[in-house]
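User: I'm new to structure prediction. If I give you an amino acid sequence, what do you actually give back? Let's try with this one:
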Amino acid sequence: MGKLDGKVAIVTASTDGIGYAIAERLAEDGAKVMISSRKQQNVDRAVSNLQKKGYTVSGMVCHVAKKDHRTKMIEQTVKEFGGIDMLVSNAAVNPIFGPILDATEEAWNKIFEVNVAATFFLIKEAVPYIEERGGGSIVIVSSIGGFAPSELMGPYSISKTALFGMTKALVPQLATKNIRVNCIAPGVIMTKFSEALWKNEYSKEFKERIPMKRFAEPNECAGITSFLLSSDASYMTGETIVIAGGLPSRM
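Assistant: Good question. You get back a string of structure tokens that encode the predicted 3D arrangement of the chain. For your 251 residues, that looks like this:
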């Protein structure tokens, strides 16, 4: 018996990196999991890998900034698994890397459309289904950059700061529906998404600034997410947990 037996979860951007590690851990802990990605081949690969391990998972293409994609993913999850108990909003983009004043309006809008607006609307659209099940739990994936905005990832960092505020703002209304919402703020995790941070000429110097003197693996974000979604965290809502090897996390 796993602590998430009988539960159904949606995890966005979950065919690689942090999202995949979270999806795998939730399935390991007994949940039925709907995974997603913007590319069908990524979905097929991830679903195949997880099913080979005996996990109950399904997957579909979902670009979270597209309402019809979000709607289809939610409806398909309900159709296949009977409902939704848990949601992990992990999808994010960062199309620019450089001084903040070099950011274009196009890049700025894309970052906030995917990282902030799509997160909110996905939660809004999933809430009625979670409420139908008697309540549940949501985890938003933010970043240590939301506390200490990066000089070269300014718009992305600001979008992640906004997710801290979103987490807090959602609490009062979701609490009346017996739905908890919490947030995680990973540090530098060794994924394809963050290669610009851990695969460059400055990575050794940056690593020395981390008290634990290393970057993290994706699975180091998975257990804490499963905990937040489970009844073990039944009296936690509106909180952000930092997973950053000891890096400072105050604004």
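You can read the tokens as a compact description of the fold. Here is one thing that stands out. Residues 8-242 form a domain with the Rossmann fold fold (CATH 3.40.50.720).
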